[in-house]
Amino acid sequence: MRRSDLGEFEEVVLLTVAALSPGAYSVAIAEELEQETGRPVSTGAVHAALQRLEQKGYLRSEMGEATAERGGRRKRFFTVTALGGRVLNEVHDVRTRLWDRIVPTIRLEWR
Amino acid sequence: MRPPKLADRLLAWFCAPHLREDVLGDLHERFSLRTAREGVRNARRRYWRDVLAYVRPEFIRRQKQTEIPLFPYTETYSKPANTTMIRNYLKIAWRTLLKHKGYSFINIFGLATGMAVAMLIGLWLYDELSYNKSFANYDRVVQAMQHQTSNGKTGTQIAIPVPLEDELRNKYGSSFKHMAMATWQGSRILTYGDKKITRPGNFMGADMPEILSLPMIKGSRDGLKDNNSVLLSASTAKSLFGETNPMGKIIRLDNKSDVKVTGIYKDFPHNSDFRELTFIAPWKLYVSTQTWVKKAYDERQWGNNSFQLYAQLADNVQLEAVNARIKNVKLDNVDPEDRKYKAEIFMYPMSRWHLYNDWEEGVNTGGYIQYVRLFAIVGIFVLLLACINFMNLSTARSEKRAKEVGIRKAVGSVRSQLISQFFSESFLIVGIAFVGAVNLVLLFLPWFNEVAGKEMDFPWTKALFWLLSLGFIIITGLLAGSYPALYLSSFQPVKVLKGTFRVGRFAAVPRKVLVVVQFTVSVTLIIGTVIVYRQIQHSKNRPLGYNNDGVVMIQMMSQEFYGKYDLLKTQLLNAGLITDMAESSSPLTQVWSNNGGFSWPGKKPGVDGEFNTIWVTHDFGKTIGWQFKEGRDFSRQFSTDTSAMVINEAAVKFMGLTGSPVGKVVTWGSSQYRIVGVIKDMLMESPYTPVYQTVYMMNYENVNWMILKLNPAKSPTESLAGIESTFKKLIPSAPFDYKFADDEFGKKFTSEERIGKLAGGFAVLAILISCLGLFGLSSFVAEQRTKEIGVRKVLGASVLNLWGLLSRDFILLVLVAFTIATPVAWYFLDDWLLQYEYRTDLSWWIFVLSGLGALLLTLLTVSFQSIKAALINPVKSLKSE
Fold first, then answer.
1. Of B723, B743, B763, at which residue does a domain stop?
2. What is the DSSP code (8-state) at residue A80?
3. Closest by alpha carbon to B483, among B518, B504, B510?
4. pLDDT digits over B455-510, tens only?
5. Inter-chain CB proximity A42 and B32 less than 8 Å
6. Which chain A residues are Cβ-neighbours of B34 within 8 angstroms?
7. Residue B30 to chain A, least CA–CA distance (Å)
8. Is the residue at B534 inside a domain?
9. Are residues B272 and B324 in the same domain?
């Protein structure tokens, strides 16, 4: 497993792409993240993460249609590749396993 | 609602082109989302933050061009910046320059020289035209002058009688704001403690500081109101007092009057008529110390024209109106017998003092302005020559570039692009030449200042200079570039590339005309320079009538000089320092007094008995070696010689004496003088005018100058050192200041020599520029005809034949130029020489010689190229085909 490949923000972005698929592009992702986290997320940060993920082969992109509010510019849509899906699964598995092990005690203490 | 433009531009600048569409699209979409949600202001603020979030290496780094994209224009086409093409033009221009180093050098160097000459002349003109302009009241300051008619001739002078001031103040006071009398500027002794210096200065009325708007460093302009005060210039104060504060100190003037320093003024600028006015003493002090001036006041002597009057017009009056009013102010007051002089007083404005000071029969005939005009013309012509060169060479060269034009057109260049290419090329060259010219000016300005007698600086800060330069660059660039730009760009590429393109027969005609113009100007300048030099030589060789070798003159500046004549003479003679010594009322190179009222037997009724009058001592003649035509010198053997008179030849002619003049009696006032001798005319005034009628009389009191003949057996420095120590002993209070008579005489030629030197320099430059151009042209022609020469050689033409063939055209042009230049030069020089009464003639051989000189130069220039071309082995020149 190549865990070190995936930063925390990258992981969230990758997840969002999977969640928004097939309509995932940087603005939508940034808006989504802003809503979910309640903190401002710039398209620049998202775009950079998307680029990195694409380089690593977890995402694939293609140009979509142009819209008026983009000034006639086209969107770049992202979809998760098979490799990306596998990595997401792995990450998810690792986390659930860990969560399962610690859940009862911690939950009590949090109360 | 649009997102902030500036932010977009910033982004477009730093963001890599291949990401721009994506990034901008995202930003804009988000902006519109936010606008809908939070309003424009917030959206805009956030927009900036979002843009800045893209400042990351991955967005800035440009995409590497590893492979050429299949459809480059759809994906990564970027508009070229509009400077790209100009950069290319300049690159091509630069390469053309480097490829033809010889032509480029001739082109740029010639143009730079021309521009440098024009700049220097421009500086000179500016300096002359801004003369006196430093005075705040420049356009209101005037000087009183008068016309007077005597013996049928009207003369004009600045010397006016003393009552004029009172009369003007009382009767026409409303026309003037200030008025100040003045005497003549001269060197005087200033003493402070042990320090003695001689400085030029003047006695002037109390209003003078106001008239001159004197820039005071210390004290005020009221400084002259007190009788015993003095205003010093900063430099005088410095040399007299050093660093100590001069204000309130008492200095002694001419070892006679004690005056208090009441003000220090800034030295006058070099280009002003008062630049040598290094101190101003009160006019009233002068009046009170000079009995003859006092007398002139007391008796209201309207006939004694020995003073100057400056004034500042009242603010609301016109000069013409004032002059009309005061015209007869003197005539109405003079003695009845002096009314025949028809004195006419007028005020002459400061703006005309320097440049318009020649008068003939009461009419202004210009003056220095002639030289200003002359040099303006020369400057324009030299510049024109350089431009012609530039145009000729660039047009000649450009025909070689027809192929380049053809290819450029074939690959899609449109005409306007070619036009801008050729223009940018010529602007590049003119630009380089301008930089060169500025450097040349900086290099030669000190030298030029020395020759021209000026103190000019490079006008770094003058907007006018830069504007003119810019204008010139643009005009030259456009002119020189217009032919290739407009003509070459019109070629049909097919014709040019196929090789059927031929320049028309008449394409070279304008070039020939320009060469003729160039050489006309050059030949005219050569002739002009020769004539100016000959005129100077002619006047220098004029017989002096006396011997000024080793003659030293010392002005008797204070009372202590007087009464020591015999003592000084014996001591100096005994020491073997001098061979003779005398005293005189005038220096040898000037005449200080002119008097009327002489009469003699046989004087015609209408004639005014007016003479230059010079008083001398017994040994004057021996000291300077004047030459007698008749009679004898003054002699101690005749006690009656105190009332004897020596006259010059001009006087004999003027008096119209019949028979021998010797023994005739001349009456002047109540005195009678017997003529004992007639001398050959002595040249004491201008070397360009005839010698004026002069009488020499004996007097030991009315003298101002000591004249010493140095002992030729000793070196002048040795003698002068000895004389100085003797003077220091006998006249301790005065500084020892002497002048060599021949130096003083030489100074009379300063202005003409200056003109000669400048004209000579410019003529040489003009010729240089013309020859440079010719050199370039001839090498171009030789190059063009290489094949023809090769064929001719193969067919048996000799080198001499070919040389003649190549040189003939140019020789013809120079001959045409000479034919035009001769009458032009004759016309102008004849006019110039007319202003000198004693002048050289315009001999035909000067013209012929100048023409031959120009021809020879042309031959030399052209031959270098033509012989080179004629010597080429025809195998080489024909091999290429």
1. B743
2. E
3. B510
4. 888 888 888 889 989 998 898 888 778 877 887 787 777 777 776 556 666 667 87
5. no
6. none
7. 6
8. yes
9. yes
Q: Is B22 on the interface with A (CB under 8 A)?
A: yes
- Separation in Å, CA B800 to CA A84, B193, B861, B867: 92, 82, 16, 8
* Contact list, B56 vs chain A (CB under 8 Å): 44, 48
Separation in Å, CA of B3 to nearest CA in chain A? 11
Q: Which H, E and C letters describe B694-713, residue by residue?
A: EEEEECCCCCCEEEEEECCC
Q: Do B516 and B584 fall within a single domain?
A: no
Same domain, B674 and B777: no
Do the domain assignments include residue B602? yes
Exposure pattern of B130-147 as b/e (b: 16+ CB <10 Å)?
ebbebbebeebbbbbbbb
Q: List the single residue in B22, B29, B49 with the smallest CB-CB distance to A42.
A: B49
Is B879 or A47 the better-scoring residue by pLDDT?
A: A47
- Domain limits of chain A? 3-110
Given B692, B716, B743, the domain boundary residue is: B743
In-domain check, residue B340: yes
The question of ipTM being above 0.95 is answered as no
Give, in words, the CATH class of A3-110.
mainly alpha
Q: Please check whether residues B301 and B220 belong to one and the same domain.
A: yes
Domain count across chain B: 4
Residues B3-52 have pLDDT tens digits of 888 888 888 888 888 888 888 888 888 888 888 888 888 888 888 888 88
Question: Is B585 found in the same domain as B555?
Answer: yes
Distance CA B176, CA B173 (A): 6
Query: Which domain does B449 fall in, by range?
Result: 370-538+750-879
CB B236 within 8 Å of CB B279: yes
Distance CA B258, CA B251 (A): 6
A44 and B53: CB-CB below 8 Å? yes
* pTM for the whole structure: 0.71
B48 touches chain A (CB under 8 A): no
Residues B759 and B733 in one domain: no
Kindly list the residues from chain B whose CB atom is less than 8 angstroms away from the CB atom of residue A10.
Answer: none
CA distance, residue B424 to nearest chain A CA (Å): 39
- State residue B497's pLDDT score: 77
Rounded Cα distance, B625 and B619, in Å: 10
Residue B308: pLDDT above 90? Answer: yes
Shortest distance between the Cα of A104 and any Cα of chain B, in A, equals: 42
Contact A73 B33 (CB under 8 A): no
